Amino acid sequence: MKKLIILLIGIALFASCSNEKKAENSSSIEAKIDTLTYIYDSVKVYSKNIAKAETAFKDTAKATIKYPVFKNEALNKHIQRQVLNYFSDEDPSIISYQEIANSFIRGYDSFFKDNQNTPQSWFLIIDVRVLQQSSNYIALKYLHGDYAGGAHPNSSITFINFNPKTNQPLTLDSLIENDQKPKLLAVAETIFRKNEKLTPTEPLADKYFFDQGKFALAQSFYVNDKGLVFLYNPYEIKAYAYGTTELIIPFNQLQGIAKPNTILSENN
């Protein structure tokens, strides 16, 4: 199972890379679209303790973090804060990408000290990648994958939405009229049921993890050239084995729902 998840994470990373025009050196990539310029930087830390695998293949714990660096410092700080939020509740001393990687490897080394015959080789993968960008909108995909023992690795995808003109995060509340949220929910449920091949009245509680069987929007969203995209992560509405579930609401179905003068109304 662990090897399968690593493969799936690798495929996700490859897919997100495949459409990028890039010139790589050992540590960074230079890119420019519209008015936003950035490079990709990375942090990699490996444990010196080798897991006692039963095969000839030898492995150890590794932590890899890749992220874009913009000339906009407010955006850089916002991206870093989204990544740090995952770790800082457990350890407030983690205040940088480097410390995230160091802390993860320290955890493995501490585990290895008491379990020197372990076949476990932990991993941490953090990959923040630019998805969409223009002069007033940037969307980033934040992929987090880790294994630190247990039945299987964990993985999740969230999206970071930011307006570089105002230097403010872009929330769903800033895009959707408050009194139109019930309509947005109804439109989304109709699309969801069609995608899942469900009848309009078929109970959701039988197959999904929605609270009290009532449809709800995913927490993670961004805007692409097709419309408003929501992504449900493993365990959010389905069992782990089903992976992620994507739901796209086309721009033409957001008329009257989206606030005027936003990226949603601009594309209608």
From TrEMBL:
Gene3D superfamilies in alphabetical order: Fervidobacterium nodosum Rt17-B1 like, Heat-shock cognate protein, ATPase
Protein origin, superkingdom: Bacteria
InterPro entries the record matches: DUF3298, PdaC, PdaC/RsiV-like_sf
Domain Deacetylase PdaC: 58-155
Pfam families: DUF3298, PdaC
Name this protein carries in UniProt: DUF3298 and DUF4163 domain-containing protein
Stretches assigned to the DUF3298 domain: 175-251
